[in-house]
Automatic annotation (TrEMBL), chain A:
Protein name: Unannotated protein
GO BP annotation list: iron-sulfur cluster assembly
NCBIfam families, per the entry: SUF_scaf_2
PANTHER family associated with the record: IRON-SULFUR CLUSTER ASSEMBLY ENZYME NIFU HOMOLOG
Pfam families per record: NifU_N
NIF system FeS cluster assembly NifU N-terminal domain sequence ranges: 7-127
Source species taxonomy: unclassified sequences, metagenomes, ecological metagenomes
One annotated GO molecular function: iron ion binding
TrEMBL record, chain B:
Needed co-factor(s): pyridoxal 5'-phosphate
Broad enzyme group: transferase
Name listed for the protein in its UniProt record: cysteine desulfurase
Provenance organism: freshwater metagenome
Residues covered by the Aminotransferase class V domain: 25-401
One GO term of the biological process aspect: cysteine metabolic process
Family label: Belongs to the class-V pyridoxal-phosphate-dependent aminotransferase family. Csd subfamily.
UniProt entry keywords in alphabetical sequence: Pyridoxal phosphate, Transferase
Pfam families, per the entry: Aminotran_5
E.C. number(s) listed in UniProt: 2.8.1.7
Length: 144, 416
């Protein structure tokens, strides 16, 4: 059914067993983002040194889409250069805005292409973007 | 159970199909109700035949529009046992509450209505944001203190500290008639008695009550009530503020402009009589006329029938949900003093995901904090899934809900 394109197995896996969840100390910056329409919240700790994403840890409450997305994002971005991370971020945002027309660039997004189905559900796009926007905020503050 | 099945066909939207090709099962009337053809036509006919700015213009259309608008007011007033001049059209219940809260913070209002430091405002933990934030912000502006009733574990208003909460400092008690999350109906009598004893005014948020059961402002012994048209089969963009005539006369207006004046010079102005004093600008005429058609419709069905019907659906839902493993009802499980709103959670599945699953089966529900975030925090919840009813819902709608809910955990592979 149509719903299966939204709830890909890999998304539900990350929801049930999220990666990098649990705030770690020693971060360079902490940001807290929420989605006021549904109450989802993400707190994200980020460390960047020598232009490389050294650490991301996070905590939060939310639906499977928002929690799985921040989990996969952490996997993708840790150890990437700031420039590469920006490229991945841009690709993910573009995928979310694709209205179901894009499969996503697997070379950049890896498992996160599973979120392609989200772009067909307008109300869920902001769920998938919650953690990414927290990262964008935190990293751009650090690199400013 | 009363049989209201003959009315469903009057609601054109209920004949459409939605996601997955499923017929629409609309269980989100607590957010907004659907509209019968009679309301849609009344609004359309106003534009097609009578449209003109009311209370101005020297032509026939202006006369017809004014008559339609004022007759709508009389109809809505009579629906709640009120006088027409005390029944003010606003754009929403939210605007109605803000209008009162504004007046209480405005020194142009009579001293009795003007809040200062040391005064207290009493609300409850189960208020919708619309009946919390205006008072919270009024308290901040004036230095008054905001206090609140708590909610019991069962999901009802905790009246155990009533006598200390409502005291000689209390100026306003602003409370919901029925929780939009828990469905519990507020026991008003002890609250109004306590408020009267100390001379406090009572503001009743009737958004979840007026559309669903008979409300008579005289019997309730409150000072202000507000509700919205769109939750009672009427159009969006129109709400009601009802207040006691003497109080409305002492209140300063919230919006200034055309229609609300008695006389104007370059440096001063005086205000029109009620209700025009509170209706600046060309009002939402077509919407008021549509609301009047909604009132006619509800009167035709009978508010007691509407209530009985919704109670039966609610009982069916409560009974059914309580039999499904992993489902927890948030709010009273007892049908006593309870309206047609049922919130629940499902272990291991976030409400947003529950709602998405139900949507795939054509079932429209509300998920999240329901504009009652403090209540969610109190209950230690991130949100709930909420089914809410109106007269067009059927036992079959509830069966479809129960059937889909019972499959949610297995779809999301929650191990129990």
């Amino acid at each position: 059914m149509e719903l299966d394109s939204l709830y890909q197995e890999v998304i539900l896996d990350h929801y049930r067993k999220p990666h990098h969840k649990g705030l770690q100390s020693g971060f360079d910056i902490q940001v807290k983002h929420n989605n006021p329409s549904c109450g989802d919240e993400v707190t994200l700790n980020l460390s960047i040194s020598d232009g490389v994403i050294k650490a991301i840890s996070w905590d939060g409450v939310g639906c499977s889409i928002s929690m799985a997305s921040v989990s996969m994002m952490s996997d993708l971005l840790i150890n990437q250069s700031y420039e590469n991370a920006n490229q991945i971020l841009a690709e993910f945002v573009e995928l979310m805005q694709s209205k179901g027309q894009s499969q996503g660039n697997e070379a950049l997004l890896d498992d996160a292409v599973a979120f392609a189905g989200v772009s067909k559900f307008p109300a869920r796009i902001k769920c998938a973007l919650l953690g990414w926007m927290a990262y964008k905020d935190a990293s751009s503050q650090l690199m400013a | 159970m009363v049989d209201l099945s003959q009315y469903k066909k009057d609601f054109p939207i209920l004949a459409r199909t939605v996601r997955g090709g499923n017929p629409l099962v609309y269980l989100d009337s607590g957010a907004t109700s659907q509209k019968p053809e009679q309301v849609i036509s009344a609004e359309g006919d106003f534009y097609r035949k009578h449209n003109a700015a009311v209370h101005r213009g020297a032509h026939l259309l202006a006369e017809e529009a004014s008559a339609a608008y004022e007759s709508a007011r009389e109809n809505v007033a009579s629906f709640i046992g009120a006088k027409a001049e005390e029944t003010i059209f606003t754009k929403s219940a939210t605007e109605s509450i803000n209008a009162i809260a504004y007046s209480f913070g405005n020194s142009d209002s009579s001293p009795k209505l003007f809040l200062t430091e040391g005064d207290e405002i009493v609300v409850s933990e189960m208020e919708h944001h619309a009946n919390l934030i205006p008072w919270q912000q009024l308290a901040k502006r004036t230095g008054a203190k905001l206090r609140w009733f708590e909610v019991t574990e069962e999901g009802r208003l905790d009246l155990s500290n009533l006598s200390s909460l409502i005291n000689s400092k209390t100026k306003i008690v602003a409370i919901t008639h029925q929780s939009n999350v828990l469905g519990s109906i507020t026991p008003l009598k002890p609250i109004t008695e306590a408020a009267r004893a100390v001379g406090a005014l009572i503001v009743l948020d009737a958004c979840q009550s007026v559309p669903h059961f008979k409300v008579d402002v005289k019997e309730l012994d409150v000072d202000f009530i507000m509700f919205s048209g769109h939750k009672m089969l009427g159009p969006t963009g129109v709400g009601i503020l009802w207040g006691r005539e003497s109080l409305l006369n002492e209140m300063s207006p919230f919006l200034f402009g055309g229609s609300m004046i008695d006389s104007v010079t370059m440096t001063d102005a005086t205000w029109a009589q009620l209700p025009q004093k509170f209706e600046a600008g060309v009002p939402n005429m077509a919407q008021a006329v549509g609301l009047s058609a909604a009132v006619d419709y509800l009167n035709k069905v009978g508010m007691n029938n509407v209530h009985q019907h919704e109670i039966a659906l609610t009982k069916q839902t409560l009974d059914g949900l309580s039999r499904i493993q992993g489902v927890k009802i948030i709010g009273p499980v007892d049908i006593k003093d309870r309206g047609g709103v049922v919130s629940f959670t499902i272990d291991g599945v976030h409400p947003h995901d529950v709602g998405q699953y139900l949507d795939q089966h054509g079932i429209a529900v509300r998920t999240g904090h329901h504009c009652a975030w403090p209540l969610m925090r109190k209950l230690n919840l991130v949100g709930t899934t909420r089914a809410s009813f109106h007269l067009y819902n059927t036992p079959d709608d509830v069966n479809k809900l129960l059937s889909a809910v019972s499959q949610v955990q297995s779809y999301f592979k929650v191990t129990v």
